[in-house]
Design goal:
By secondary structure, this protein is mostly helical. It has 21 helices and no strands. The radius of gyration is 22 Å and the shape is globular.
Length: about 425
């Protein structure tokens, strides 16, 4: 699964930086290019919850395969797009079904125990980040060739087909046979404690066995099951976790929104240096993902406390960047911000799954992706408005939003601590 995540973002990051150049070469105006980009974001916003919930209903294997193959179709259409219309059509299957990493994370949460989940998620995110670092370099080289964009798109589609083969080769049959034994055992006894103490990785297996029947059900039955699950999440008490995720996402996006321009206006630094600094931060993010295991052990697997401290550090570092008087303070803040944001992103996912439960992990991760998509829509607007007042406006606004997120976490501290105690007793 880590290899799948690496190849996924490696292929996507080869193509995405070149897309604006390609659509303009097809004769599209800046407005048309912006509309197509916005439509992609809107499709991601609404589809992530439904696709994540669908993976809970029909199982990870079928949903993951469908998302990978339909994403491959989208990038193949992109590779043959010679008109603006075909370019726009190629973004539809990708916008709706490009949720491969979310479903992979849901599968990981099914397979590992709660104690090991931050470590495994951190390594998974690190593998993704490596792909995101290398992809633009390879894509930039390929685009220098004749018909380079088309070749890059076909390579990306081929990578997705390779990922589909990897998913098909995973040992699903062994999981299903194990789940049948698990289900039979549950029929013999109604003891909750026996079920709770059963090996946690069989949760994924149970989903796989149910999926083999659910896949052939009426589409209307599947839709009804999806809507029931979404209603359950909407009526749950997880609003504060999703609010914290939204606020922190917007705060970090505001930090990066005008980074190159602000660096040039404030310190006279060329955009090339700003690009090197962002690549440096991405590389440190990979290192932070690999260090999550020792860090969670240091915090005795208290995800809430780790999230609170990482969010506080993120807020402080954004404030340091906004008030920086020299380029060295910016480098210092970027160095530690790479660690705090990586840790915070992993902790918020772990907290969602811990309180929401693994049984609906696909739905929870899908809703989380929708929340992040809202942040991506709102952040450019807030950045543009605050930038009218000062180059430091966007990060200063980000500090305020991060403080609100920290306040929300402190207000709901009792709920997190009580849930943590229950989790430890079950273990």
């Amino acid at each position: 699964l880590s290899l799948l995540s690496f190849q996924d973002l490696f292929g996507v990051s080869m193509v995405v930086p070149l897309m604006n150049l390609h659509i303009k070469s097809l004769g599209a105006s800046h407005t048309v290019a912006g509309i197509i980009g916005s439509l992609y974001g809107i499709m991601q916003l609404f589809s992530s919850t439904f696709v994540g919930c669908w993976s809970d209903v029909v199982g990870r294997q079928y949903s993951l395969l469908a998302c990978i193959l339909l994403s491959a179709l989208g990038y193949f259409l992109l590779g043959i797009s010679t008109t603006v219309l075909l370019f726009a059509i190629s973004r539809v299957p990708v916008g709706i079904f490009k949720h491969t990493l979310s479903i992979s994370k849901a599968l990981l949460s099914d397979l590992v125990s709660e104690r090991d989940r931050p470590l495994v998620m951190g390594r998974f995110n690190a593998a993704s980040s490596v792909g995101f670092i290398l992809g633009p370099v390879v894509g930039g080289y390929l685009t220098e060739l004749e018909d380079g964009f088309y070749q890059t798109s076909f390579i990306c589609a081929s990578i997705f087909l390779l990922n589909a083969g990897l998913v098909w080769m995973l040992p699903w049959s062994e999981e299903k046979s194990g789940s049948r034994e698990h289900q039979q055992g549950n029929r013999r006894t109604d003891s909750f404690s026996a079920k709770a103490n059963h090996d946690l990785h069989l949760k994924s297996a149970t989903n796989g066995a149910v999926a083999s029947d659910s896949l052939f059900q009426s589409p209307w039955i599947q839709v009804a099951a999806v809507l029931r699950r979404i209603k359950g999440i909407a009526c749950s008490d997880l609003w504060d976790i999703f609010l914290v995720r939204l606020l922190m996402s917007v705060a970090i996006l505001l930090y990066y929104s005008n980074f190159s321009l602000a660096m040039e206006e404030r310190f006279g630094v060329k955009p090339l240096f700003a690009g090197y600094l962002m690549s440096y931060s991405s590389a440190l993010g990979v290192l932070a993902g690999c260090l999550l295991g020792p860090i969670t052990r240091l915090y005795q697997h208290n995800t809430y406390r780790l999230l609170l401290h990482s969010s506080t550090l993120t807020c402080t570092l954004i404030l340091l960047y906004a008030s920086a008087l020299s380029i060295w303070m910016v480098i210092l803040s970027s160095t530690f911000l790479a660690f705090s944001t990586t840790i915070g992103r992993t902790c918020i996912i772990d907290l969602e799954l811990t309180i929401g439960g693994n049984e609906a992990s696909g739905t929870l991760l899908g809703v989380g992706q929708s929340v992040t998509s809202v942040g991506r829509i709102v952040a450019p607007l807030l950045s543009g408005i605050s930038q009218e007042f000062s180059p430091c406006g966007p990060p200063s606004l980000g500090v305020g939003l991060a403080l609100v997120a920290i306040l929300v976490m402190n207000v709901n501290k009792q709920k997190y601590c009580s849930r943590g105690n229950v989790k430890l007793k079950n273990q």
